[in-house]
Amino acid sequence: MSTENITEVVREKYGEAALRVSSGVGNACCGSAPSALGSIDPITSNLYGADQTSVLPDAAVQASLGCGNPTALAKLNPGETVLDLGSGGGIDVLLSARRVGPTGMAYGLDMTDQMLTVAEDNKRKSGIQNVAFLKGEIENIPLPDQSVDVIISNCVINLSANKDRVLSEAFRVLKPGGRFAVSDVVTRGEMPPQIRQSVLLWVGCIAGALDETEFRQKLRAVGFEDIEIEPTRIYRVEDAREFLSGQGLDVDKIAPEVDGKFMAAFVRAVKPAAAKSCCGPTCCA
Asked: What pTM, to 2 d.p., does this model score?
């Protein structure tokens, strides 16, 4: 599938998800059938505490299709600027805005018109002012160089067909010393391609999650340092039994090759601080 086709598939699926929220129907992760509010989805359920969801509009919570809670794990300080890549209905943007306070700023970037409409409505209902939602693709971030302190994202980078470009753009807009702190789906260890494809279709629309080793390599290649990948939720084959059986796979047979190899993880990295200016003719030699 071409890069353009992948982008359109993701745009269509998340547009449909936004319309379901607007009509009062709940969402599940892309491989699962959408279901009524209150249903249990092993990927998206129980990611946010009541102390977080109670201060937000219901639609912001319902529109969340993430696999983690980057706002709970990322260090955010008053006065900082935060950017959420693929912000959807805005839950992580609104939570971040509360943490950076009125002297800070939280941006949400999304390419789906329907999700941006939901997000703007959630902003209005929340009454939070230090928030702005931007239309665009995460491969081409519409912000200046070195303008952001922290980048967060929730189960979105795995959907991109050009992850090198996403990471390069993230590095560009971060200030020196800025932090990359995202939740994403990653894999661990080798497995047959057909099985990997099928499980990742269940987890997140497009089978594009990186192996954790490859993720580290790509982050390092664009210049990040202090890279950490921390599993936050490990997916079990039983969670996907119904979906995989529908794909014509013998779940009991493939279980040893799949179980525990797909996970949500919190990925941290830092953009190096700016080099100090030379103070003499030989100090930079």
From this structure: 0.77
226, β-bridge pairs: none
Paired strand residues for 266: 183, 230
Between the two ends of the chain, the Cα-to-Cα distance in Å is 48
Phi, psi of 235, deg, nearest 5: -90, 135
Question: What kind and span of H or E run contains 50?
Answer: helix 50-53
Strand 174-187 relative to strand 225-235, pairing? unpaired
Q: Domains of the chain, with CATH numbers?
A: 3-270 (3.40.50.150)
Phi-psi region of 147 (alpha: psi -120 to 50; beta: other; left: phi over 0): alpha
CA distances from 102 to 127, 129, 131, 150, 205 (A): 12, 8, 10, 16, 36
Nearest to 86 by CA among 20, 137, 16, 158: 137
**pLDDT band at 18, cuts 50/70/90?**
very low
Cβ distance 63 to 135 under 8 Å? no
What would the pLDDT profile of 114-169 be if each residue is shown by its tens digit? 889 989 999 999 999 999 999 999 999 999 999 999 999 988 898 888 999 999 99
Q: What's phi and psi for 87, nearest 5 deg?
A: -80, -10
Q: How far apart are CA 216 and CA 5, in angstroms?
A: 27
Asked whether the beta carbons of 264 and 232 are under 8 A apart, the reply is yes
